[in-house]
Task: structure prediction
Amino acid sequence: MINKSFLNTISVLYVEDEDLAREKLGGLLKKLFKSVDLARNGQEGFEKFKASIDNKKNYDLILSDINMPIMNGIDMLEKIRQLDSEVPFIFTTARSESENLLKAIELNANHYVLKPIDIQNLILKSQAVCEKNFLRSQLVSKQKEMENFLEAINNVAAVYIFNNQGEITYVNEAFIEATEFSKEEIVGKKLEQIFHEEVSKSILSTLWEKVNSNEILETIIRYENKSNKDLYFSAAVFKLSGDTQEYISIGFESTEDVIQKKDFNKKVMKSFQDFNKKEQTYKHTIDDLKTKLLQYQNALIKLQKDLQYEKKKNIEKESQLAAYDSKALTSKDKKHDILEQKNKEIQTHIKNNRTLKNRNDDLEERIVFLEKELQRKDKQIESSKEKFSEKLREIKELQAKIKS
Result:
């Protein structure tokens, strides 16, 4: 069955010297595959393949005729295999020439298809070889990934393998370095011999119960190194895959964390004990305070009664003061009325004085004006007198002339 979604991920190089056949089949292939590049002979096909490697855009499949000018398909495949030994390769040929086919098999060609080409057969064979190559590359990638993963674990984790008798069959450098024992001192020993002597036997029974049920035991295991110091590892223990009766422990040292946790628990217990002691002290203190509180409450009741009595006396005194204040206010009101009347009279007097002053100023200005006017009139009278005397003199002179 054709898997179109898978074919749409495949890049193809199709090499054919006949123009019509190349263009026709190339057009059909382009409808199914991700990309299809065409070449007219082996030399051109090899150059395109080499360019794809240089550009890191490798072809996933090569379809090629055998008999072509300049460079045939067998020679092209031989040169391509020098660059890539795995890329799937299918020949299309008009003749089943045994010599060519044997050479093609030697060069790891995957299939050949006779002309005229059955399109469906070609597509199914192309799909099959590409899927096989894809799965192989995925497997290689996963194996490489697993190798890197195991190497990383081996570098940072303490690992050992034991059989169904509980005997150590393998130990890595990280575990050897942590325990300070040599490989020969550990391999062949049983689990209970490398565990700390105080480790509970229930842990061993739980371990076997879990691993024999194909479950993973995650726990903290206590060991003792060659210097008789405690070691703790946070470990995952499980059965290895396959028919083997072997099990693996992968652990990360957590000695410092466990010690800190133990110290913390000790501090918590001590704090709890100190708290219990303080609690007893607090209880005695509370009882004493309750007794004193009762005494204070009784004293407060007495004070409240005394306060009520004092309030009553204060109210009586306040009533007397209010009466005195009322009389004082009445006297103050009368004085206020008198002062207000006197103030009005003073204001009226000030107003009248101001009016008189204004009138006086007006009269003084009028007097000054009249004095100036009087002086002017005096001057006019003097002038008139002089004129009258002159006229009188002239009259007397005329009279004297008349008499003579």
About this structure: The radius of gyration is 65 Å. Residues 41 and 68 are 6 Å apart (CA to CA).
